[in-house]
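Ticket #4471: structure output looks truncated?

Reporter: J.K.
Steps to reproduce: submitted the chain below (563 residues) through the standard prediction queue, then opened the result file.
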Amino acid sequence: MVAVTALYRRYRPESFADVIGQEHVTDPLRQALRADRTNHAYLFSGPRGCGKTTSARILARCLNCVQGPTDTPCGECDSCRDLARDAAGSLDVVEIDAASHGGVDDARDLRERAVIAPVRDRYKVFIIDEAHMVTTQGFNALLKLVEEPPEHVKFVFATTEPDKVLPTIRSRTHHYPFHLVPADTLSGYLTRLCEREGVPVGAGVIPLVVRAGGGSVRDSLSVLDQLMAGAGPDGVDHDGAAALLGFTSGPLLDDIVTAIGAGDAAALFAVVDRVLAAGQDPRRFVEDLLSRFRDLIVVQAVGERADAVLRGVPGDQLQRLHHQASALPPAQLSRAADLTSTALTEMVGVSNPRIHIELLCARILLPSSDDTQRGAMVRLERLERRIAAGAVTAAQTVPGAPPAPPAAALPVSAGPPAGGPAAEDDGGAEAPRAGALADDAPADDAPAVDDQPSPTDVATGPAEPAASAAEQPDPRPEAPSGSAPAPAPAPVDGGQPPAGDDPVQAIRRLWPEVLGDLRTRSRATWSVVSEYADVPARCRGRSCRGRGAGTDGPTGPRAGKPL
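Returned output as attached by the reporter:
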């Protein structure tokens, strides 16, 4: 039975040319080896799994190769074979784990071993891994040796936290910082590795592996090894990889973004319930949601060139991202990303993350709860989109009157005979409405008929055209034929209201209540009516005069004329 080793062990680099994503480190080292200008101590720092210890081993092979020092080990000599990926190691290359051997006694033992000449190779190389775990006393014991080592001794310190290395030690080394491997470089490397292993992978699987690895080559290889171990005859599919790695599936994220764009709270909370009911890690779910918002912001910013930024995203998913980005205003999308990022920070160590997720969804859907400028921008964008879609019309914003009938279609009222009495108010007639009193003054006082409605008419609604005297029903019973005509009543002074209840005074009493009710119904209409409309101060029959506020405003050309 053939023993199967892990991927990161089978594909461990054996030369600087095989190290990916660290050219800023490998190129200077290779140049120093070619020029034979190597230092006696090096410090390799960087995140885990990015090649620090591997590069230290390669450096030892390059120094002790029979053809060396060289930047490319031959791989044939005893030293190169002893330091190969599957070999047991060399006696002249000592690896020390400072996590368990970082005390002062271990440092003294190392100092005693360093003075002994190499057994076979050119140099005795000490690789101290996790160097930040060495105690201060241990570093102080090594200080003199690191500062002035024997000619046959080389030190390589590897650490993830260079700040914890004693400054006096760090100042005596050549420091090379390692970085996380870029996603493009790592994706290409993993794709080639899958081809060499003969395992097919579905679309979108490699980006999931890269994301799970976080830029670490070793972590990414471990994740890919796990997926390959559980792959079926068809290889590794996207849904299975997402479920195994704990990522939120793409359709669920699509449903969430669609619900946010439509403002559908019921659909949004239903998707959240489905995610949590399936056992999804709440914090991972919020991370995936934040990642989706980031992708949408990128799509909105760069448009059709988003594929150059979102490398590795399948074409169908990229089309969905374009569709979702067009449905969300930029301010709302940016605000949702900020709220999600804040919620992700606040979810550390909480006992009930479901509450935080639901509150996050509520804040995203309710920009009115945000009294900052960002919330105001979201509300403004929503209003602009509704107006553009025809949901809000000008008639709904400021109610207006229907077009006035042509002047020729209006009935012409015959004025009373000269010296005759003015038309009396009909006691049974309906009281005139505020701002819509009919003007039935004599011909010498009546204004000319306007073709356009006045601002007062627009604010208070359509005005009823005055009926002619012949068309007005006479509430008094007709006198029997042959009887003498009734004596004409005395003329009523135009400055005094008729006897009985004065409708103008009633309107003036109710006018504040009318304005208050109108303000609760429509603030736009209320602002127009309260500014331009006024209650008449006096009446002559059905002709009323305002208190200096005409239909064109207090200073308009029609100021003081009948309403």
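Triage note (M.O.): checked the attachment and the full token line is present. DSSP finds 23 helices and seven strands in the chain.
Status: closed, working as intended.
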